[in-house]
Specification:
- The protein has 5 helices and 6 strands; from the N terminus they run βαββααβαββα.
- It is an alpha/beta fold.
- It has one domain: Roll (CBS-domain), CATH 3.10.580.
- The strands form 2 sheets. A 3-stranded mixed beta sheet has the order 1-2-3. A 3-stranded mixed beta sheet has the order 4-5-6.
- The chain is globular and about 40 Å long.
- It starts with 11 loop residues before the first strand and ends in an 18-residue tail after the last helix.
């Protein structure tokens, strides 16, 4: 995992307002962001598209916690486990977890405390680590393929 590990972004908080979260995204290439509680402990991930949809939709939730609650209600097991990987695990496991969860970024957490985020790994970073030519990929946010 260390070959694809990057510094984590400044995490969103559960009580953060949706409009503030959309501003935090800025020019970031992340499609999923970590969410922490008041003490900085990881409590989950939220998809950028879910936040943007919430900010522009008819039923505008106030906070990230509301979006996370809605997303968990759509998952068969309630989404109780936070999708994550550990630094000593193989990159293939990160790909499998991304496929299982639909997140293209996962927190890399401490072995001794799964709520302590030490970094983040993204789909593009994993593909680069495998030697893929990511310059020809179409980013999810809709910019065209580089020719």
């Amino acid at each position: 995992m260390t070959t694809a590990l990057r510094e984590p972004p400044q995490a969103l908080t559960a009580e953060m307002k949706v409009d503030e979260a959309t501003m935090r995204f800025g020019d970031s290439d992340l499609e999923s962001w970590p969410v922490v509680d008041d003490e900085g402990a990881l409590i989950g991930m939220v998809r950028v598209n879910d936040v943007v949809d919430a900010a522009t939709g008819n039923q505008r939730p106030d906070t990230i916690a509301t979006i996370m609650k809605r997303a968990r209600s759509l998952v068969k097991d309630g989404g109780a486990e936070i999708p994550h990987v550990h630094q000593d695990q193989p990159l293939g496991l990160a790909l499998a977890r991304m496929g299982d969860t639909g997140h293209n970024a996962l927190p890399v957490v401490s072995r001794s405390n799964a709520r302590e985020m030490i970094g983040i790994v993204t789909l593009v970073d994993v593909l680069k680590a495998y030697g893929a030519d990511t310059a020809r990929m179409t980013p999810v946010r809709g910019t065209p393929v580089v020719e």
